[in-house]
Design a protein that fits this description.
This protein has five helices and five strands; from the N terminus they run βαβαβαβαβα. With 149 residues, it is α/β, with parallel strands linked by helices. It has one domain: 3-Layer(aba) Sandwich (Rossmann fold), CATH 3.40.50.2300. The protein has a five-stranded parallel β-sheet with strand order 2-1-3-4-5, with helices on both faces. Helix 2 packs parallel to helix 3. It is globular and about 50 Å long. The N and C termini lie far apart (35 Å).
Length: 149
């Protein structure tokens, strides 16, 4: 995917991302992968919901299996409250096909298996950011047509 003017894609998008996982090791790995991105990390679904109330995150990357509020329940709560204003990417070590189906049926924009590969994670984020940008451009055009100056 190329950025504006055919240049390499932007590696430091301003899009606010919330990363949710109970494993400190994966936080370190993803932190290195996304060091140039606007990412905040939390360690539980409960912390994620609290963070979403305080800050305007556009993308949430969540682990599937966590104590307390797990990834699927978090996904459902995000979609119930924020609809598609927040895109959710689910990550997991689970090899259960039902988890993939539950995530996609619940409205996840993507599903990635651990161990995460940096290139794949960045590709998914760039695709998600591009899609959000297209939606915003379309929304702005529709608004300007309905409210001509």
């Amino acid at each position: 995917m190329l950025g504006k003017g055919g240049k390499n894609p932007v590696q430091n998008p301003e899009t606010p991302i919330l990363f949710v996982d109970d494993d400190p090791i994966i936080h370190g790995v993803v932190g290195k992968y996304l060091k140039d991105w606007n990412m905040t990390s939390v360690f539980s679904g409960e912390e994620a919901l609290d963070s979403l109330e305080k800050e305007n995150f556009v993308i949430v990357i969540t682990d599937l299996r966590m104590p307390g509020i797990g990834g699927i329940e978090l996904l459902h709560q995000i979609k119930a409250q924020y609809k598609n204003r927040v895109q959710v990417i689910v990550i997991t070590v689970s090899e259960d096909l039902d988890d993939l189906v539950d995530a996609l049926d619940g409205g996840a924009s993507d599903f990635l298996l651990k161990p995460l590969k940096k290139e794949v994670l960045i590709e998914v984020l760039q695709h998600t950011v591009s899609r959000i940008d297209r939606w915003n451009q379309s929304l702005n055009k529709l608004i300007s047509k309905q409210n001509p100056s």
